[in-house]
Design goal:
7-stranded mixed β-sheet; binds flavin mononucleotide; globular; about 30% helix
Length: about 160
């Protein structure tokens, strides 16, 4: 099974998490920057792990923003999500970018994996990435809780592997 891990990252945090997810998965997974990969390449994968940080007013990271989502084929594909944000500085729109990716995946008919990540241990007011009381994917906060990143990745990837 070939897996694509695709990230959009302005300062390197989401890129770093993408690479840690790759290392933790220990499977045949390739990492791509959404700012430099083309849709034709991504469309050859049937399993994708998509990650974005959140910027501006709860928006997608710039390279995701520039990417033409119409060209990405996700129907029937297995997709898991991860998102980075700052729950103290932007607690009213924490990891909203992951919520935006989630909406795109649902709209395109993807089969979502890695959902139901608990909100316990985070402290924020609102997030578009929370559905039915849990995150739609892995939420990471490198600004305030970088000490928890590795264990969060380990636990989330373990759950994801059981679904793959
Ligand atoms: C100008 C600015 C706006 C931001 N807006 C949000 C936001 O709306 N929600 C959020 O959760 N985090 C927000 N963040 C925090 C970033 O998502 C966070 O620092 C992330 O780790 C950056 O990852 P990157 O280096 O991969 O882009 C913002 C950060 C900056 C500097």
């Amino acid at each position: 099974m070939a897996i694509a891990i695709v990230y959009g990252s302005s300062g390197g945090n989401t890129e770093g998490v993408a690479k840690k997810i790759q290392a933790t998965l220990g499977m045949d997974a390739k990492v791509f920057d959404i700012g430099s990969v083309d849709a034709a390449t991504l469309n050859t994968f049937d399993t994708l792990i998509l990650g974005t940080s959140t910027w501006y007013d709860g928006e997608l990271q710039d390279d995701w923003e520039s990417f033409n989502m119409d060209t990405l084929e996700l129907k029937g594909k297995r997709v898991a999500l991860f998102g980075l944000g700052d729950q103290e500085g932007y607690g009213h729109e924490f990891c909203n970018g992951m919520g935006i990716l989630h909406a795109v995946c649902v709209d395109k008919g993807a089969v979502l994996l890695g959902e139901g990540w608990p909100v316990d241990g985070y402290d924020f007011e609102a997030s578009d990435a929370v559905k039915n009381g849990a995150f739609v994917g892995l939420a990471i906060d490198e600004d305030n809780q970088d000490d928890l990143t590795d264990q969060r990745i380990d636990a989330w990837v373990e759950g994801l592997k059981a679904q793959l």
